[in-house]
Amino acid sequence: MRGLAIAGVLISHNLILDVWYGRQAFQIVPPWIIGLLFPLLIIFTWAGSFVLISGISTAYTAFRRFDNGVPAKKIISPILINGIALLLLDPLRTLVFSRPHLFRGEMTHSIFSKLIMTGEWGLPSPERLYLIGALPMIGLSGCVAALLVWLLFRKDRESRFERNLGILFVAGFVFSLVSIPLSYTMEPLIDRMLSVDNPHYIAAYLLRILGSAQLSFFPMGCYVFFGVAYGMLLASGKAPAYVDGMLKRFGNLFFIATAVSIPVTFLFTKNPIRFLGNIDIYSPTIIYFSLGCITYIFKALVKHVEFGEIEKRRRFAERTRWLRRFGILTLTLYIVDAVPGMFAGEWFHHLFGGKALWAPLTEGRDAFMTNPFAIIVFVALMFAFWFLMISLWEKSNFAGSFEWLMVKISGLFRKESSRRLDLRNNLYEDETEGGGT
Hints:
Layout (H helix, E strand, L loop, with lengths): L1 H18 L5 H4 L2 H6 L1 H6 L4 H20 L4 H26 L3 E3 L2 E3 L2 H8 L15 H19 L8 H35 L5 H10 L6 H4 L1 H14 L4 H29 L3 H6 L6 H23 L3 H10 L1 H8 L1 H7 L1 H16 L18 H22 L8 H9 L12 H4 L11
Helix pairs in contact: 1-17, 1-19, 1-20, 5-6, 5-8, 5-12, 6-8, 7-19, 8-12, 9-10, 9-12, 13-15
């Protein structure tokens, strides 16, 4: 699932951010193209899937390690270290690698975006920090997952299994409902912190991580509760029919919640259309719909791959090895994908649209933005670039990647070595044992 998620992110970023420069797509692109790409735009709101997947992986591994008698400290410590590391990596991504963004009405640049988009070298402004990405959301969610694992998995896991499953689902729904108004409340507070004569940069940054941004912990952290529930369900050893039935029930509950949330929004909000369509703070409708879709994708993978016949699993693993390579490098790809995307995008704007290379970013339209052939060629070339790079990088065991760096750092705090870059186990296990999801 992680490989599928990051492949979708790469394509979406290239298309929406490198071709159309983000939100102005709605003013530039003809309505029929927006309608045609509507499914992709919906998927673009699935950033919480990374939190869900992280929760699944964390809970699955922790549940199994508890069953093998591993002490709680050895299980929880790596999870916390990984979460903290992700929190620290996001400023590096934002200040050095990421694309230009508007913040409070002004265009801000990272080091690479300024160099590529304007041809000039310059240090990023402090405002770049407030354009947070998914890493703090995933990092904080990892810390919450560690707490949930410690509270629910330490003892009586079997006898309290369904109770714990219920706790996680209720907590996830409550968190999603409570955190959305909290996120809206933080918007004016952060604005006041940055508008005073002596701006409170650090306090505003910490609040921004918690709420008011598209990828803030409020409300996106709700995905971790459901991820931990799914990981626990998968690791429990329950019969395949039971696991499949529970996932179907949960997926249906999310779709029911989606349907219920729409009339409730119209009844209890002043501007329901704006609330439902807000892409800075996602509404419950968007969150529940994405959870329902992702749950059914996970259900299908579990049913046909995890619990499938060995021969079918082997064939599936062989055919999706390229996708699992993407999954291993999710962190690296998310951090650095903007650099080649911006560079190639600027050349395409210049070649197909007449836009002067290294011209200041404008809100105007050029021919590349409405040239279907050029757009398809651009997105295909970018995907081919990453496919080739990852295939070649594998030969060095992904040395120098951020995953490689995380393994090195975590190795300083744990006795057993991480299997995160064990390619024989993660990519080629299917040759001898049939592989898995």
